[in-house]
Each structure stands twice: as C-alpha cells, then as structure tokens.
Amino acid sequence: MEILLIITILFPILSGAVLLFLKEEALSRHMLVRLTGTGFIAEFLLIIALLSGRAAAGSDPELFLFSLTDEIGLKLRLDRTGAVFLGVIAIVWVLAGFYAFEYMKHEQNNKRYFAFCLMSLGVLAGLCEAGTLITYYVFYELMTIMTFALVIHNQSREAIHAALKYLFYSFAGAYMVLFGIFFLYRESSLSPVIPVFFILLGFSVKAGMFPLHGWLPTAHPVAPAPASAVLSAIIVKAGVLGILRLLFEEPAAACFAGSWVQTLLTVLSVITVFMGSMLAYREQVFKKRLAYSTVSQVSYILFGIFAAPSSATAFRGAMLHVAAHAMIKSALFLIAGAIIYHTGCTRVDELRGIGKKMPVLMWCFTICSLGLIGIPPFGGYVSKWYLGTGVLADPSSGVPGLIGVIVLLISALLTAGYLLPISINAFLPGKDFRDEVLTAERGRENAAAGDAAAGSAAVGNAAAGDAVAGGLPEVRVPEKIFAPAYLKGSEPKTMMLVPIIILTVLSVLIGLLPEVIL
Fold this sequence. Notes:
Helices cover about 70% and strands about 0% of the residues. By secondary structure, the protein is mainly α. It starts with a helix and ends in a 6-residue tail after the last helix. Helix 3 packs parallel to helix 13 (about 310-345). A hairpin with a 5-residue loop joins strand 1 (about 60-65) and strand 2 (about 75).
C-alpha cells in the first residue's frame, strides 16, 4: 500500500508532462480528450485503492523519500485528515475535468490546460500525503506554479493581471510560511509564537483571509469555469490543510491556544466572514459574486479552527465544511460556466427567466444555494452547527468566539440574500417579463430580419411601417423588459450537466450522512 503513496503523486504529474510535450499536429482534440479522460479515471481509481487500503489496514501508510539535510527529510504519510482532503479532491477534480471537455471547446490551448490539470492533481495528492511540514511546503509551492497556468489560461490582459496577482500573493504567503518553519524548528531566542503566527498567516493567504484575500475575487472571474471551480473548491483549502498540519504539531499547538495569535486570527476570520458576504451581496458579476462568497465561506472553517483549536466538535464542523463547500461551490461555478457558455450572460441581473430555459440547471443551483446558506438537511447546515456549538463550548474562544457565532448567523442571511434572488428571478421573472429580445441591439437585428415574433410588438410594427421608407427606425426597448429569447431553449450538454448533478447530489448526501466524512 505504501507504494501507492508515490504512484498517486507521480502518475498524474508524469502523464501531464508527457501530454504537454506532445506535438500539436500529432494530437487531435478527440485523442486529447481520450488521453486526459483516461488519466483522470486512472488517478481516481488509484486514489480509491489507496483510501480503501488505508481503511482496511486501520493504520496510516508511511513512506520515507529522502533527506534534504541531516535534520530535514521528505516523508509521505496519509492520516485521516489527509484522506478526507484527498477523497474530496479526487471527486471534484475528476468531475470538473470531464465538464471541461465540453466547456473548453471554445477555448484555445486545450492541450496546455489539460496537461496542467493533470500535473496539479498529482501535486495536490502530494499535499494530502505530506508527512512533515517541510514536505507540505514543497508541494505547496509546486501547487502555486501548476495552478498559475490555469488562471492565466486565456492570456488576456485581465487574466495576466489576475495570474500575476495570484502569484505574488501566493509566494508572499509561502515565504512567510518558510520563515516560520525555519525559526520554529531550530534553537532560537525568538518566541515560538511569532513563527507560528507567520506560518498561520502565510497559509491564510491561500485561504483568502482578510486582509490577504485580494487575489481570489480577481482570479476567479478570468479563469475558465472548470478552473474557477477547482480554485474555489480545492486550491483555497490547501491553506486550510496547512493550518491543520501546523496545529497538529506539538510545538505550535502548545503555544497557540490562549495566545494573542489566536485572538488576532479569530478576529480576522470573523471580519472575513462578514466582509465576504457583504461584498458578495453587493456584487452583480455572477462569477465574482461566487468568488466573494468563497472568501466568506472558507473563513467559516478558519474561524472554527482558530477560535476552538482543541474542540473535537469544531474540528468535525471544519472537516464537514471542507467537503460540503467543495461540492457546493464547485457545482455553483460549473453552473455559472454553463450559463455563460450557452448564453453569454455574465451578470446576475441578466439571468431573469433563465429557469424556463434551463430548469434542471437552475434547480441544481437552488439546491446548492440552500446548502451553502445552511438550510437543513443539506451539508452546510450540519457543518455550521458543529462549528457554532464547538466554538461556544470551547473556553479559549472567549468573546471573539461568541461574536463570531453571531456573525455566522448574519452571514447565513446575507448568503440567502445574494443567492436566492437569482433562483427566484430565474423561475418567477415577474409580470413585465417577455420572451423577447434583451437589448436594443438585438431588437434591431430582429427588426432587420423581419422577425416580428422575436421582437416586441412595438418594434415589429415600427419596422414594418418604416420598411416603405427604405430604412430602419431607432428601436426603443423598455428597460424593464427582460427576455432570454436568444437562449438555445435547452439544458447544457450531458458532459457538462452530469457533473453538476452529481456534485449537487453529493452536497445533499453530506448533510444526510455526515458520519461518512467524520
């Protein structure tokens, strides 16, 4: 079983590297999809075999790799926490990968995208299997480099700016982690609480905690939808796993509880929960709203860890929220991508009436939204219940913990405020809704084509009357008439819809069967 530890890391990395260096002319898109899909499925089966073997053996497999110095070595070890993260990664990554086979048809550089997807999956497996903090740091840096290619994929000016911002924030956080590791595990006159602070703050950068969250709402909207899904569901959780790894270590755990570091980071996580929800509530760009939501929701996990580091109940809540948020938010980003792919709509105020054209897609959106809000019996409810009760029961949480629980409740209301109106307007667009054109430009196109049925009655009459005069009139479309007649009138293709449905079902099952995670 120990050999599977290294195989699950090396197989996708080597597969992606081979794919990257294959010549474009020798690789058709059909062959690219077949090779990548085979790689995803094979890695998924390898991970399942590793997790099953660990469960059957009842022990954590370990594998020593090599020594960097006399005191520092790289070691792999898969414990319970790493197994949960690895299982979540395998599910989300494979489903987002198959979704991408259809979505990426309209994108360039498909070979590069899928190659880096495979390599990123191998590096993430290494993160979950890291047996020491320095091993985790090595894979953490590799993850940033691999996922940088996913953010910068379309190479637009916005994508380059977002990717460089992502790189700068990530490396800055990683250097703080390295500084902390250096001083934590050597003889030094420096108080151990200071390197612990730097390590936790460095990992919090990847988790998007205020004031180091700026990269996240910038990177998500410009990345392809399947990349946004894994960034939100998985990559930000790398910071969470790093924090858990540190607080499992005795030197850090002994000095963290009751220190000023605990109080400060608890306060920052509470601020992030509220701030992210407020920014999401005010944001009108669909994917950016979901990105701000991720800022808030991941800090739910950080709040539970920081406010109650010794609480088993809060830890259960954190682990459940890792899984529930990964399923829910990846589904939401894939839904946003499907809508953008089929309609071109990027703003929430353009989605009115879309439930009449894509009912299955929007029902999945509604179910996932209820889970993110925390409505029983969905996964978000169970995880937030554990987080709240665990923090309140831990005496070390103090006043910041009590305030934080109140903020969690307020954030749940804000989450309902920025998600449920999308579903309501999608299915119940109102009396002023017409199945007509959305803009004056589309009205002109319909009038020029003589398609009175697709335009409003006023536009059609004006076009007909002016045809005699040999010209087209200026078309005026009432501002409050919304119309998705330009939609195809059907759901996304099976390759895009099935992963969304699976993720939606899993988000519900986590709430019904939380003991599977715990």
